[in-house]
Amino acid sequence: MSLNKAPIAVQKQCRAFDRLEMIQDRYLQSIKPVQRTYVLQALHWLENDNCGVIGWFDEAYPALLRSIERPPMVLFFKGRVELLSQASVALVGSRKASHYGLQVTEQLARQCARSGVVVVSGLAMGIDAAAHRAAVDYGATVAVLGTGIDQVYPRRNRDLYELMSHQGLIISEFSPGTPARMDHFPRRNRIISGMTKGVVVVEAARRSGSISTALSALREGREVGAVPNSIFAKSQEGCHWLLKEGADLITCTNDILAWFDLSADESDQQSACTTPKHLANNPLFANVSNDPVSLDELVERTGLSVAEVSEQLLLLELEGLITAIPGGYIKVGRR
């Protein structure tokens, strides 16, 4: 898109930023010390491999993002910038996700990525990180940061950040060196909703950043979906509220892919819930679900001895079909 077609304010800011490549000492001396620091950090960071910056007028700038009310003037990026031109969906949710939420996120993200839809999220703990990890093996995930592009927040996601910078894409409107601030994250959320076809909230409280992202998507005319859960789960109040307000009910990946007129491979769609043939009539496996069940409960439900239940649980864990969590055992989605 030609810069001349952009709003006047965008033209001025983009042209000013464009001059970074030809910056002179006298220009550096003319700006405030704090601004000078960020300019120098940006120039130094841009020398790294696989790093760059795109402006509102660049062809690589996401088309959907360009149309929102307050688009970012520039996007710093690290990784596979071509992902910005592909169909994408946002998966967001609680930082303190339940095992159910993480399991659902992994399945949805993996199957979306396999179907060619890029998974976008915010690189936070919980749902965000689970979505990125499930999709990154297919090179189909984008992280939007609320910090400078060179900052990892939270630090525990350093390994994921490094993995995505090679196999996926990391973007930010904040210049290198910019630390995390509370007011940055609503700005990040508008990019997540603005660059994608729709937003799926997997697990969220009524008042949360994830609900804010969904509302931003609604304002921009995007699709919004929510995953249901227990009515007693406080972490799901936001999802249930969205469903009452008319959000799409998301119970499988095809509910998301329908936004793109796509569908998941049937065998992949069912893989996470198909019972192995050798366990079709196993009473113990039949009594393990997405809700934690204790050893004592399994003994009572199956009529087996403690020793028999313990032995079978160990075998099922070794097969990767169940896992132990605080409170008991749950089934694990099969890859």
Automatic annotation (TrEMBL):
Q: Which Pfam families match?
A: DNA_processg_A, WHD_DprA
Instruction: Give the GO biological process terms.
Output: DNA-mediated transformation
Using the record's annotation, list all stretches that form the Smf/DprA SLOG domain: 54-258
Q: Domain DprA winged helix: where?
A: 282-328
* InterPro entries named among the record's database cross-references: DprA (IPR003488), DprA_WH (IPR041614), DrpA_SLOG (IPR057666), WH-like_DNA-bd_sf (IPR036388)
SUPFAM superfamilies in UniProt = MCP/YpsA-like (SSF102405)
Signal peptide (residue range):
none
Q: Which family would the database say this protein is a member of?
A: Belongs to the DprA/Smf family.
The protein's matches in PANTHER family, at most eight in alphabetical order, are given as: PROTEIN SMF
What protein am I looking at?
A: DNA-protecting protein DprA
This protein's species is Idiomarina fontislapidosi
**Gene name?**
dprA
